[in-house]
């Protein structure tokens, strides 16, 4: 009597799927929005930026330093807008954000290259926007080496220069690939929470709630009936985004698929139940929407999607831990990019499961069996 | 044992008592009318009886189950038809019925039988939202008797339905009652009240009259005269001000003049120079008076 009846759950699921299918605009939105966002965000945020303004601090101008500069410019990443300035001026420029890089050559650069004792080049990168710096930095080593080899004609037995890279302002050098996996979490969160947050309020606003409550369905059955169809929607979205990530952005996938699938499943479950919890709190669809955004924006800011998590102050990091997205981002980045296996992601996985449990219990406690 | 036996039901919303100490008993197989003006607490009462609202005070049994503790058992054996159409307008007729059948774990045959009984088999793929008011009402009734309930709670089922459909609806209700179903139906149509075995009248949240229609009329102790006049408007104006006259209601060229004191009423009519003859007090006359009385009591 109190257990879950598959027959009743089946009836609830069928009804929900028919309604979903008949609401064409919403249905199209659920399928197209992820793709649109991925393409939009993916290309807008994630393009490998070129022609970044750079400053050169070189006390002496000689053929070696000129070779370095032209080689760096040839990569397309650097535009030396300020050449021959002092270190103090360069510092001011990078602080203001007028340049993204400061390349500093030592005063005896040319002589030391000729002597072959590998002088050091300091590259300071403004890594507040990490994706800006990463591409440029990654090309540095080989470019500089090749340029100087051509000039000296020396054999490449030993590197002609030592390159020291300082990523300034942000110790966590996130690569551009972080955006797309993160975007999967953001898209899932936005669509699924928003859709399920209207699950009950829609019944209330259409006046069908009274009837639903008068029928013999248990609160757990009603919750599952509302939530499971959207897990199906989530699965389709995941497939779309992962495929696009591979085909459009060439995001590497080094981890195990089953580990990722388990993580995504738990995350999606947490999201749809969170949406359902919101719908037990809101009285109208409008309120449900507002509550969703109230949740959505801080989670976007504090989860590490927009800003590097470790760059945030302690209190913000603590706050960030309350969002499922934070844990999901750690999980998916670890699995997709670092090839993490099950034990490595035990912590974010446990956190996601805890969200499922807490949201589910809260939703069941909040669910009103009566119209009181 | 009675199908419905509740005592002292009370419910307040935001500090305002909507239902105040209502006791109700409905015998098995009876068609009980639940009458009262808009906002008198009929819907709230019905919701408390089928477990959709928790009473602030009072208790009782519906079909032998406690209304506070056994709401689930009650829901299984009760068919509740809401005032507003509350099936899914974006589902077809058949899908709505299949949904209900699934929740009651009924076989697929039940849906086919219901469609055939409604005469809607050929229109089963039509969206419920596109049905007319009368058809929506028939669909809702069919959906809530599909699981063969023992008690039917109908909340103003005929509001906004044309006379022919209303007639057919009541024929069906009587047919169901003849098969042993107990029916509690709320309405504010007087002609529908007269189709019930017994009526319960509620106003301002209080139950103020109950019994068969003749009993309720007799207990009011009203006398009614029919006045025929060429210019009923003028006579009515004079009569309304006269002592002993409580209600003056024009019906075409005649006036129904009602009061509790027969002698005073006759005197008033004679003084007004009207030609009158004894008439029958209608249920409507009684209810208008009951409403007036209970409003005075409230104030």
UniProtKB/TrEMBL annotation, chain A:
List the membrane topology term(s). Answer: Multi-pass membrane protein
Compartments annotated for it: namely: Cell membrane
**TM spans, by residue?**
25-45, 179-200, 227-249, 255-279, 291-309, 345-365
UniProt KW Transcription keyword: no
Give the Gene Ontology MF terms in alphabetical order: ABC-type transporter activity
- State if Secreted is listed as a keyword: no
Which residue numbers delimit the ABC transmembrane type-2 domain?
141-370
Any one Gene Ontology cellular component term annotated for this protein: plasma membrane
Please provide the record's keywords in A-Z order: Cell membrane, Membrane, Transmembrane, Transmembrane helix, Transport
Q: Where primarily located?
A: membrane
* Protein family according to the UniProt entry: Belongs to the ABC-2 integral membrane protein family.
Task: Spell out the protein name for this chain.
Answer: ABC transporter permease
Automatic annotation (TrEMBL), chain B:
PROSITE patterns associated with the record: ABC_TRANSPORTER_1, ABC_TRANSPORTER_2
- Provide this UniProt record's keywords sorted from A to Z: ATP-binding, Nucleotide-binding
Domain ABC transporter stretches: 4-229
- Identify a single GO molecular function assigned to this protein: ATP hydrolysis activity
Q: Which PANTHER family match?
A: ABC TRANSPORTER G FAMILY MEMBER 20 ISOFORM X1, ATP-BINDING CASSETTE, SUB-FAMILY H, MEMBER 1
- Name listed for the protein in its UniProt record: ABC transporter ATP-binding protein
């Amino acid at each position: 009597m109190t257990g879950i009846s598959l027959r009743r759950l089946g009836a609830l699921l069928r009804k929900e799927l028919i309604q979903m299918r008949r609401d064409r605009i919403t249905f199209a939105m659920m399928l197209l929005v992820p793709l649109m966002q991925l393409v939009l965000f993916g290309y807008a945020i994630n393009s490998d930026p070129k022609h970044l303004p750079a400053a050169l601090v070189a006390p002496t101008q000689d053929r070696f330093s000129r070779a370095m500069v032209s080689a760096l410019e040839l990569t397309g990443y650097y535009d030396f807008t300020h050449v021959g300035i002092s270190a103090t001026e360069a510092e001011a420029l990078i602080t203001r954000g007028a340049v993204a890089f400061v390349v500093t050559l030592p005063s005896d650069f040319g002589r030391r290259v000729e002597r072959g004792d590998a002088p050091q080049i300091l590259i300071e990168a403004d890594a507040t926007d990490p994706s800006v710096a990463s591409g440029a930095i990654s090309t540095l080593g080989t470019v500089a080496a090749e340029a100087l080899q051509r000039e000296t004609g020396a054999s490449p037995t030993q590197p002609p220069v030592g390159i020291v890279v300082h990523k300034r302002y942000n110790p966590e050098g996130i690569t551009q690939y972080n955006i797309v996996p993160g975007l999967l979490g953001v898209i899932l969160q936005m669509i699924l929470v928003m859709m399920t947050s209207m699950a009950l309020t829609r019944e209330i606003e259409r006046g069908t709630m009274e009837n639903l409550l008068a029928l013999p369905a248990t609160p757990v059955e009603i919750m599952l009936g509302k939530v499971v169809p959207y897990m199906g929607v989530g699965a389709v979205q995941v497939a779309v985004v992962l495929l696009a990530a591979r085909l459009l952005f060439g995001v590497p996938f080094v981890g195990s698929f089953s580990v990722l699938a388990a993580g995504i499943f738990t995350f999606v479950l947490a999201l749809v139940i969170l949406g359902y919890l919101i719908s037990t709190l809101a009285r109208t669809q409008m309120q449900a929407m507002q509550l969703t955004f109230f949740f959505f924006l801080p989670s976007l800011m504090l989860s590490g999607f927009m800003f590097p998590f470790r760059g945030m102050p302690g209190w913000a990091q603590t706050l960030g831990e309350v969002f499922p997205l934070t844990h999901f981002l750690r999980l998916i980045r670890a699995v997709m990019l670092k090839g993490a296996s099950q034990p490595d992601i035990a912590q974010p996985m446990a956190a996601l499961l805890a969200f499922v449990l807490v949201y589910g219990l809260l939703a069941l406690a909040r669910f009103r069996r009566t119209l009181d | 044992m009675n199908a419905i036996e509740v005592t002292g039901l009370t419910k307040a919303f935001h500090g305002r008592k909507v239902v105040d100490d209502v006791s109700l008993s409905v015998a098995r197989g009876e068609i009980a009318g639940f009458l009262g003006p808009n906002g008198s607490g009929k819907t709230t009462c019905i919701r408390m009886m089928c477990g959709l609202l928790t009473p602030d005070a009072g208790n009782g049994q519906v079909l032998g189950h406690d209304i506070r503790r056994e709401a689930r058992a009650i829901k299984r054996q009760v068919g509740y038809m809401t005032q507003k159409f509350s099936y899914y307008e974006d589902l077809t007729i058949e899908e709505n019925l299949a949904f209900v059948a699934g929740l009651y774990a009924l076989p697929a045959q039940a849906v086919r039988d219901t469609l055939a009984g409604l005469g809607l088999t050929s229109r089963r793929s039509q969206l419920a939202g596109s049905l007319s008011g009368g058809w929506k009402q028939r669909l809702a009734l069919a959906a809530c008797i599909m699981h063969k309930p023992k008690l039917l709670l109908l909340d103003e089922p005929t509001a906004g339905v044309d006379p022919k459909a209303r007639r057919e609806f009541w024929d069906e209700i009587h047919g169901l009652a003849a098969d042993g179903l107990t029916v509690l139906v709320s309405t504010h149509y007087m002609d529908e009240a007269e189709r019930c075995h017994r009526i319960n009248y509620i106003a301002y949240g209080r139950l103020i009259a109950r019994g068969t229609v003749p009993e309720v009329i007799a207990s009011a102790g009203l006398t009614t005269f029919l006045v025929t006049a060429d210019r009923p408007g003028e006579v009515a104006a004079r009569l309304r001000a006269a002592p002993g006259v409580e209600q003056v209601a024009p019906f075409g060229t005649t006036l129904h003049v009602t009061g509790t004191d027969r002698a005073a009423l006759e005197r008033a009519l004679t003084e007004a120079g009207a030609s009158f003859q004894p008439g029958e007090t209608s249920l409507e006359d009684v209810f208008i008076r009951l409403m007036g009385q209970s409003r005075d009591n409230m104030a």
